[in-house]
UniProtKB/TrEMBL annotation:
GO MF term set: chromatin binding
Organism: Clastoptera arizonana
Gene Ontology biological-process entries: DNA-templated DNA replication
Location of the protein in the cell: Nucleus
Protein name as it appears in the record: Mini-chromosome maintenance complex-binding protein
Upper classification of the organism: Eukaryota, Metazoa, Ecdysozoa, Arthropoda, Hexapoda
Domain of life: Eukaryota
Cited InterPro entries: MCM_complex-bd
Length: 573
């Protein structure tokens, strides 16, 4: 039997343990309306809801009244109220706020700006959730005043009231502009008409470990409070704060419970990690069959693409992002010979991957697109760029559309940013006066005719079969028919769960690897420690792709053979 979730913020504040226990149950969690797929018109102020998204921006902590005292002017009775999970102090016209009361307790809360997960593929989006049950009691507590206070709050109360009235007036004008069709920039890294944004208020230690670009799912109380729609950082509306969209466009959510990405990552509740792990070798074989065909019958290219799709940064050491495996597939037929091929290949990959983004590297695009987030100090916003992506978002770069011409200053910066992303898995966000280095975990696949202008960990020259070239359009159609449930769901789970498995190298094989490194150096004096590192990454991925957590001699030898074939193609080319 499902638990009753019909509680409001006041009840939660006094019954935290029991309420959180109910919310932690999966069946109750999934009952909460999801802002991402609900019209704001169907939601109410104070309702318990969910939002799933990526942290796009983070704001400084602010003070708020966790509890405060009010006095009834008729009965002279003093009441203590809870201010947690609310935007405003609540008291009726017959009550007054006691500014000097010892029962007024200040605490800190911080706000983050969340957007729908960028580059989330359609199949991975949560379905629309509907519920006939009212989850909260929406009683009007009377007149509301903003409850956040700046640490340097003015003591002049009359000036305070004037400021608030001005704020309310400006908000009304803003609402009229919305009603008249005024558009607000939601600051989405990758614009999408269906994506939404939400400002989330975090309390106590909740979210203390959250970072920029983390993906979270948050349950909390929704706020459409019209008195606070232009403020997020204090008691008064400033010019900067008024520039934020009103709460009717970007609702505020007071967080009660936060789950990270891994808590809701599996694409199907009918699958288990054990099932996929035990059948990893079979799933790898089926995936290889599909990818070989859409890569013009090139088995080696399919092998490398599978390892690339499974790659993830699992550790950072000595300026290196261990586990990354960027891939450049070259000798891709030009758009004039085979129009639409790169988009069709990407479309197939997007049916397998949770998150992916296709970026055409045309000269016009490189000179105009904003890839790097930039801090705007006038609005106190981090303006998003297309590379502001969450971990394990696959980036596919299409170099086949690049034409002759000159990169301007912006284009050069964009190319440099892509190069740093591929080489170091880092991006320097532009804070104007200084760069802020952000760690990333974005697998990059480059599709090009010749060798890419960007460096990559592995460069594979395609060797297309002529018959496959002639029938490639039919091959893509056949691949779509082949990849249907239950196989499709299992392949998706395979690609999303396998990369995070632990992996070890047995002690006896460590000795073999050392001996092989010496031999490789003797045979080729250009073979470096970086080359050995790539071999170890490929060996790890190859083992995991087969469902093996211990590196075997077979996998070690296989990746050496793969690398030998790959390099021989480059020499012939």
């Amino acid at each position: 039997m499902m638990d009753n979730l019909n509680f409001d913020s006041n009840f939660l504040a006094h019954n935290t343990e029991s309420c959180l226990s109910k919310l932690n149950k999966e069946e109750n969690w999934n009952r909460l309306p999801l802002i991402n797929s609900c019209s704001h018109q169907n939601l109410k102020d104070g309702q318990l809801v969910r939002f799933r998204g990526m942290i796009q921006d983070m704001y400084n902590p602010v003070l708020y009244f966790s509890s405060y005292a009010v006095r009834n002017t008729k009965t002279n009775e003093t009441l203590i109220r809870c201010g947690k999970y609310k935007d405003s102090l609540e008291y009726s016209e017959e009550e007054e706020f006691l500014f000097e009361s010892e029962d007024n307790i200040n605490k800190e809360r911080r706000s983050v700006y969340c957007v729908s997960i960028p580059a989330l593929n359609d199949w991975a989006k949560l379905p629309l959730h509907t519920s006939n049950e009212s989850l909260v009691n929406h009683e009007n507590a009377g007149a509301k005043r903003n409850m956040e206070i700046d640490e340097e709050e003015s003591s002049d109360k009359s000036e305070s009231n004037i400021t608030k009235r001005l704020c309310s007036s400006q908000e009304s004008a803003s609402n009229k502009q919305v009603a008249n069709g005024m558009e607000y920039d939601l600051n989405l890294p990758i614009p999408n008409l269906m994506d939404k944004a939400c400002i989330i208020n975090l309390y106590d230690e909740d979210g203390s470990n959250l970072k920029l670009n983390d993906v979270v799912e948050v349950a909390g109380f929704l706020s459409f409070d019209s008195s606070t729609t232009c403020t997020i950082n204090g008691d008064f509306c400033t010019d900067d704060e008024i520039k934020f969209p009103p709460s009717s466009i970007v609702p505020r959510l007071h967080a009660v419970l936060i789950k990270d990405a891994m808590s809701f990552n599996p694409p199907s509740n009918l699958l288990s990690t054990d099932d996929v792990w035990q059948n990893a070798a079979y799933l790898q074989k089926e995936l290889k069959l599909v990818l070989t065909q859409v890569l013009f019958g090139d088995i080696l290219a399919a092998d490398y693409l599978i390892l690339h799709l499974l790659s993830t940064v699992y550790k950072r050491q000595d300026m290196m992002a261990l586990g990354k495996c960027s891939l450049n597939l070259s000798n891709i037929p030009s758009p004039s010979l085979l129009p639409g091929y790169t988009k069709k290949l990407y479309s197939l990959l997007s049916e397998l991957l949770h998150k992916s983004h296709f970026l055409p590297m045309s000269l016009t695009n490189m000179n105009s697109v904003d890839l790097i987030p930039k801090k705007n100090y006038e609005t106190n916003k981090l303006i998003s760029g297309q590379l502001q992506l969450s971990n394990k978002t696959h980036l596919v770069l299409d170099e086949t559309c690049m034409e002759a011409g000159k990169l301007d200053e912006k284009g050069v910066r964009n190319i440099q940013a892509l190069g740093n992303l591929i080489t170091f898995q880092k991006l320097d966000y532009n804070f104007q006066f200084y760069p802020v280095e952000i760690d990333t975990n974005i697998p990059v696949l480059i599709l090009s005719e010749g060798k890419s202008m960007l460096n990559s960990d592995c460069h594979v020259v395609l060797q297309p079969d002529k018959m496959c070239l002639l029938t490639i359009n039919e091959t893509f159609e056949a691949a779509k028919h082949f990849m249907k449930d239950p196989l499709l769901s299992r392949l998706r789970f395979y690609l999303s769960s396998i990369p995070f498995k632990d992996h070890e190298i047995p002690s006896d094989l460590q000795k073999v690897i050392h001996e092989d490194f010496v031999k490789l150096r003797q045979n080729d004096n250009k073979f470096s420690g970086d080359d050995l590192h790539i071999l170890l990454v490929l060996a790890r991925l190859h083992s995991l792709s087969k469902g093996q957590q211990l590196l075997t001699h077979e996998s070690w030898q296989t990746v050496q053979d793969m690398e030998e074939q790959r390099k021989s193609r480059i020499i012939k080319k």
